[in-house]
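User: We ran a pulldown and think these components assemble together. Before we commit to crystallization trials, I'd like a predicted model of the whole complex to look at. Sequences follow.
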Amino acid sequence: ETGVTQTPRHLVMGMTNKKSLKCEQHLGHNAMYWYKQSAKKPLELMFVYSLEERVENNSVPSRFSPECPNSSHLFLHLHTLQPEDSALYLCASSQLTGGGTGELFFGEGSRLTVL
Amino acid sequence: KQEVTQIPAALSVPEGENLVLNCSFTDSAIYNLQWFRQDPGKGLTSLLLIQSSQREQTSGRLNASLDKSSGRSTLYIAASQPGDSATYLCAVGWKIEGWGKLQFGAGTQVVVTP
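Assistant: Here's a predicted model for the assembly, 229 residues in total across the polymer chains.
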């Protein structure tokens, strides 16, 4: 496997379900990100982990819960979602150097539909 | 707050024509700027990364310029092909509290007709 891989690629869930999105990066980077992409809106940063420590939580509702067990893996745990949470969820990684984000590499995304 | 604008929102050109995509930002104190391509329903593919100290970057048919003083970057795609049809996004990065932030534009949807 190379680059950034996300599973599952598609997910349909009811409002009372609990599910998780998984992301794995094979690039040796020290930072990982979750972005949300809704129709007709710019990408929205949700969470950032630097060296497995969360450094950004961009006012995301608590029904989204991130987990970063090590520098290669990132999860997004989902529970009691709303239909407006339906979107493409993108994971990315980069090498932080000198305070900047470095070049971002994205996975293919997980398309989430909440019924 | 950094605001990133991409105009036009959509563009259609005949094959062989050069593409010019624009990205403007409000705060010139940037760390870097990155151009991405996104195919429908897919993730983003990094095309070019320009550091704040650079004026341009080139990769094959792609050339990106950066003018921090005017808050602009331009992506040129020479001799467009139908395979270049996609949405192109720019993202402006800046330093904050020991790491960095990226602000994305809404993208320009490009269609290259055979």
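The radius of gyration of chain B is 14 Å. That may be worth checking against your pulldown data before setting up trials.

User: Thanks, that helps.
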